[in-house]
Each structure stands twice: as C-alpha cells, then as structure tokens.
Specification:
- It is elongated and about 65 Å long.
- By secondary structure, it is an alpha+beta fold.
- It folds into three domains: 2-55, Structural Genomics Hypothetical 15.5 Kd Protein In mrcA-pckA Intergenic Region, Chain A (Roll), CATH 3.10.290.10; 61-125 and 213-226, Pseudouridine synthase I, catalytic domain, N-terminal subdomain (Alpha-Beta Plaits, 2-Layer Sandwich), CATH 3.30.70; 130-208, 2-Layer Sandwich (Alpha-Beta Plaits).
- The chain has helices spanning 4-10, 16-24, 85-89, 116-123, 143-151, 188-196; strands at residues 2-3, 28-30, 33-34, 41-42, 49-51, 54-55, 61-68, 97-98, 107-113, 131-138, 154-155, 158-159, 164-171, 174-181, 200-208, 211-212, 221-226.
- Strands 7, 8, 9, 10, 13, 14, 15, 16 and 17 form a nine-stranded mixed β-sheet that branches. It has a four-stranded antiparallel β-sheet with strand order 3-2-5-6. A two-stranded antiparallel sheet has the order 1-4.
- The chain is 21% helix and 33% strand.
- Belongs to the pseudouridine synthase RsuA family.
- Residues 2-62 form the RNA-binding S4 domain.
C-alpha cells in the first residue's frame, strides 16, 4: 500500500504536489469512492484508481533530454498562442512534461519525463541541483565585475547564492562566460545582468543536474524508458 499521490506521480499523471491538489479537489476515486485525504493509501495492482473518471494505468517511465530552441515556450500550452514544447515532444510517444522551464528566449537542455517523483526531487530547493549556462552580456566585464556574479548579486527577492563562473572571451564590448547556479529563481540570470549593468544578450543552458545535450541539434530529443514496477 502506498500513498495515492505517490502512485499518481510515479504513473506520470502529475508531479507529487499537483497530485495532492487533484486529491484535495475531489478529482480522485479509489474503487468508486472519492478520496480527499492526503494520507490515503491504495494498492495500484488491486485497487481501481481514477482521476476525472479515467482509470490510472501504470506507464513505463520515460526520461528524455530536449534541446529547446529559442522562441519556444517550455510549457505544454501557452495562452498567447506561442509555439510550445508539446509539438517537439510528440515524437516521444508518451505523456511527458518538462522538469522546470526555460524562458522563451533561452535555448538549451530541458529534461523531460513522466516520473513525478523524479521531477519533484530535481526541483526541490534543498537539492541545489546545478544548472550550467553559457552567457553573453553587453559590456566588457572586468575581473571585479565577474567576482560580483561569483559571490552573489542583490536582486529584489534577495541575494543570489554563490555561483561558479568561468570567463570564455571578450568580443569588443561583449563578454562571454560559463555560469553554474544552484537556484531556481524566475529569470535569475537575466535579472542578474540587469542588476549589475550587463544586460544578457544570449543565454543557453548547457546542462541540468549534470546531464548535457552535447551533440543534440535544436528541437531534437533523445529518450530512454524504464519499466514501471
């Protein structure tokens, strides 16, 4: 017997947190009975578990790397009608979703899965998962400027944590560097650029949690599957 939200997360229905919201809102039934208690348990091999009237069937777990191109929203839908990763993920042939997100103008590695527990673990703030980017900013940054980014930049929501930074090159009044952060703040790197007077011109994520997309062309993906127990 396991908690229902854990079963839903493992089955690719939703992340653990989203599964809890499904339960609390009365959208989950076990053997025909509505379940709203987060501590409720079930046996996925014996019990009939339904979400919105549809039976939950254990799926093979899928793990994929997508090279998200610029100009694509890293969500499955967009109210503004912009291109989304949904179209790029159709070829995987399973119900999957992104782990976290990259903003519209940022390209690079985006992990994809239907394993809610895996996604929750990577996104939990206490995990301090490393994310590495190549950054191009406007302005010729000095060693002192680079050290500010390394030590922490004051933003409206507080100081950023120390980061690893490696200078790549200067191109006239432009600076390229590699940056590794361990936070998940919204548009953190672009805001760091604005706060220090070096606006970000290009931003691409090289790796997430040690997983890189080296050799993976934009808009393409590579995936693997594990049999659900």
């Amino acid at each position: 017997m396991e908690r229902i939200q854990k079963i839903l997360a493992r089955g690719g229905i939703a992340s653990r947190r989203a599964a809890e919201e499904l339960i609390v809102s009365g959208r989950v039934r076990v053997n025909g009975r509505v379940v709203t208690e987060l501590g409720a348990k079930a046996d996925e091999r014996r019990d009939r578990i339904e979400v919105d009237g549809k039976r939950v069937v254990a799926e093979n777990l899928v793990y994929a790397i997508l090279h998200k191109p610029r100009g694509v929203v890293s969500t499955m839908s967009d109210p503004e009608g912009r291109p989304t990763v949904r179209e790029l993920l159709a070829r995987i042939g399973a119900r999957v979703y992104p782990v976290g997100r990259l903003d519209f103008a940022t390209s690079g590695v985006l992990l994809i899965t239907n394993d809610g527990e895996f996604a929750d673990a990577l996104l939990h703030p206490r995990k301090s998962v490393p994310k590495t980017y190549v950054v191009k900013v406007k302005g010729a940054m000095s060693d002192a400027d680079l050290d500010v980014w390394r030590k922490g930049v004051r933003l409206e929501d507080g100081m950023t944590q120390p980061a690893d930074l490696r200078l790549l090159r200067h191109e006239g009044d432009k600076t390229w560097f590699e940056l590794t952060i361990r936070e998940g703040r919204n548009q953190q790197i672009r805001r760091m650029g604005e706060a220090t007077g070096f606006p970000v011109m290009r931003l691409a994520r090289l790796s997430f949690a040690g997983v890189d997309g080296e050799g993976l062309p934009p808009a393409s993906s590579v995936s693997s599957r594990a049999t659900s127990s």
